[in-house]
Amino acid sequence: MTVVTNRPEPVPPVAAPDADPGQEPLSPAVRQAVEADAQLALLAGLRAGLAAPDWRSSAAEVVADICHRLSCLRVSLGWIVAGELQVIALSDGVVLEEGAAIPELQQAMLEALHQHATLTWPPNARCASRITLAHQFLYKAQGLAGVVSVPMAYGGRVAGVISCERSVVFDPLRPSPRNDLERAAFSADEVHWLSIVAEGLAPMMAMRYRLDRSWWERTSAGFFTLIRRIKDPTERGLRWSVGGAVAALLAGLLVPLPYHVTASARLEGAVQRVLSASEDGFLREVHVRPGDLVKAGQVLAELSDDDLQNARRARVADLAQQENAFAEAFARGDRAQAATAQTKVAESRAQLALVEQQLARVKLVAPFDGVVIQGDLRQQLGAPVKRGETLLTLAPGLDWRVVLEVDESEVSELQAGQVAGLRLAAMPGQVISLLLERVTPVAKPTADGVRYEVEAVPTGAGAGLAGLRPGLQGVAQIELTSRPLLQRWALHAWHWLRMLTWTWL
Is 238 a domain residue? Predict the structure, then answer.
């Protein structure tokens, strides 16, 4: 016997049952009667199959009904599962475990499946051109009176096979050998009847199979269907699509691509100086506003000094009085009195110097060349101010730093010395080169989640760009080590999955 592989090859559309060359020609009257009876049997089989709880039970109901109607020893139904033909139902009540095989029966089914035709043994007059070695072997090994296998076609392809075996006795319970084995074999009208029933049951079995199969079976079926279509020479568009997908997958796995971390950024002065009120008083004059460029020594604002001027005049008068007292005591030669007066003179001079210092601080003077970044006091003229209250904030005009807000999931990949690029919203056409200086260890809660501040300084291109102002905002991209795109996505998915597992388990 020639052994046939258990994995069927792609098959073309199957012809209608009555067009099979292995069938004997029937008269119109006989054909009409056979087709009418087949339709009734088909309805009964559909009703029983649909009422069954699952796919295999449905197949068992179908083969049991066919076995009863054709007086067979056994009727079997094989179906292509995950690209392989499996015997899923037997009419004799034997329950097969999933994946179990009956070699002789499966070989006979595969013989009919590979040839896409109904096969019988003993062969009829028009079956001589078909290969029936497996059917012949099954016939002799089991001592049968007849064997017939009918493919079940659905969607233009063979999805299963029904095999019927007929014994040499009429009734297994009362063994009485048939005298005429040719009459015991399957006749042309029975084969035609079985072909009609198989053709009608195929859509129902395919539907039950799709609904009841497991996710693994669905995946396997889809995979083998795809392989079958790829092998089909007519599916050129699918071949190109699959080839492109495979190429993209390999590129995503093997080709390193530039990788960067994106973060919001703002521009600040490298050094910021706060000018505060030296004494309690009132705001008298303001000469600048935020954004103004200032020079070192320039007066920015003035506080009211009326009280200090009065104190200064009092200290001047007191100093003159103490100096006169010292001169008189010295002229009299009263050393004790002169010493006391000299001490009071020194005290008066110290008090006057203190008032002079306070007068000097009522004017807020720029300590360096820079720009005013905070403190709009023009609407507060005459308003009282407290000692130590912040009035103005200055930053050097050409000395900047950039503060990046990085998401907590990406901050672990950053370190000092990495390079980055910055595009400001006010200057989208310019890229400012950055160098990371420090990753702060303190988290900053925001509306978008937890962020960490990363400090960077402009270097190289764009560092001295004209028009830079403190407070400008933009987007920065921090360059990291290049890695394949799919590897990057897989790493992020793995971290997310680990956190999810840790959270729930």
Answer: no
